[in-house]
Design a protein that fits this description.
about 350 residues; 2 domains; alpha/beta; about 30% strand; globular
Length: about 350
């Protein structure tokens, strides 16, 4: 890989499926859910070193100071911290980052990463990045596909087609499918040509703005205007509110990847998880002899297959099976493990009442 790869780290989400620990004031990417560092810090460390330029981090005003503190604590000084005045989903955020980056390095290649993913096999991921950069430099907009290990219905899927002539590890994308039902997911798993859509991308800045500008001209024009009118203080770039707020929210998949003829995928297996639910943390956590993952002040007896975590009072579990129990000083969540994806209903219903230990 060359030295011109700019990580663009998206840190604007709220992580509602990890309520009550993740909330608007302290979303999951800023929490230490696996190990001692926050997910944001782990992401930034993963793409630090000789192959990468300093990152561009995108966040909102509420989190900007904490983002800066967490990056400084691991010795990472960003190329820029872009502060969004309002959230507008991933496509406008990426467009603004590309517009800023083009003014500094028109030939730059962007490595777009959510700030809340876990990757276990980092050498394998580094190899996948190298393949994606090769494909991007040959004129493609590249996503990373994750080799499925189960018929997941909570992920989007991509189907690979012809192998690219310029890169043996990359393929044209034939089709996108968003969150199929179980029967369809089982078919995809058996087919072998489908990957989970990871939400991570490699884009040449020029091609990205050209294609997104063709498909979403208003979005790109407003994103560029929000950068041109931004307030800059050191590395902090506060986008112009009127221009950015005028953009219709849209994900990068819907705005770009599902419509461009330049889409490509690099499939791989590198121990990826988007930490999308408490069940995901149970799946990747270190389990005791009864299959329990225990974090914090917890005692249990005759308990199997549970995720038990306390960031507040002692949890005492007796005769439990396949449950999620998460306690803060103000809230206790108890959920069936197979309903972990539905926890966001409480964040949506009760999110205005932040726990007092925020």
């Amino acid at each position: 890989m060359s030295g011109g790869i700019y990580p663009v780290i998206l840190s604007g989400g709220s992580g509602t499926r990890l309520w009550p620990l993740s909330r608007d004031s302290l979303p999951k990417q800023l929490l230490s859910l696996v190990g001692d560092l926050s997910l944001l810090a782990v992401t930034a460390k993963r793409v630090s070193g000789e192959h990468f330029a300093p990152p561009i981090v995108i966040c909102n005003e509420r989190h900007q100071s904490l983002v800066g503190e967490q990056l400084a604590a691991i010795g990472v000084r960003p190329e820029a911290t872009i502060v969004e005045p309002v959230g507008r989903n991933t496509a406008p955020a990426i467009a603004a980052a590309a517009a800023l980056l083009r003014t500094r390095d028109p030939l730059a290649v962007m490595l777009v990463l959510p700030s809340d993913h876990i990757i276990v096999d980092e050498p394998a991921f580094t190899r996948a990045i190298a393949a994606a950069v090769t494909a991007a430099e040959a004129g493609h907009l590249v996503t990373f596909g994750i080799t499925p290990t189960a018929p997941e219905t909570g992920y989007g899927y991509v189907r690979r087609g012809t192998r690219l002539a310029q890169c043996d590890e990359a393929f044209e994308i034939v089709r996108f499918v968003e969150k199929p039902d179980l029967a369809t997911a089982l078919e995809y798993l058996a087919d072998g040509a489908w990957s989970w859509n990871s939400g991570m991308f490699v884009f040449p800045v020029g091609l990205l703005l050209e294609e997104l500008g063709r498909l979403e001209p208003g979005m790109v024009a407003s994103a560029i205007a929000s950068v041109d009118g931004a307030t800059v203080e050191g590395e902090v770039v506060r986008l112009a509110e009127a221009q950015f707020a005028a953009i219709t929210p849209k994900s990068i998949d819907y705005a770009l990847m599902e419509h461009t003829p330049h889409a490509a995928v690099v499939p791989g297996s590198f121990g990826w998880s988007d930490i999308g639910s408490w069940r995901a943390l149970w799946e990747m956590g270190e389990k005791d002899g009864a299959g329990n993952v225990i974090v914090g002040q917890v005692v249990s007896e005759d308990t199997q297959g549970c995720y038990l975590r306390s960031n507040g009072p002692l949890i005492a579990g007796l005769g439990l099976k396949d449950l999620i129990v998460v306690a803060t000083n103000e809230v206790v969540l108890v959920a069936a493990k197979d309903r972990a994806q539905d926890v966001r209903v409480f964040a949506n219903r009760l999110g205005v009442a932040e726990p007092k230990d925020a």
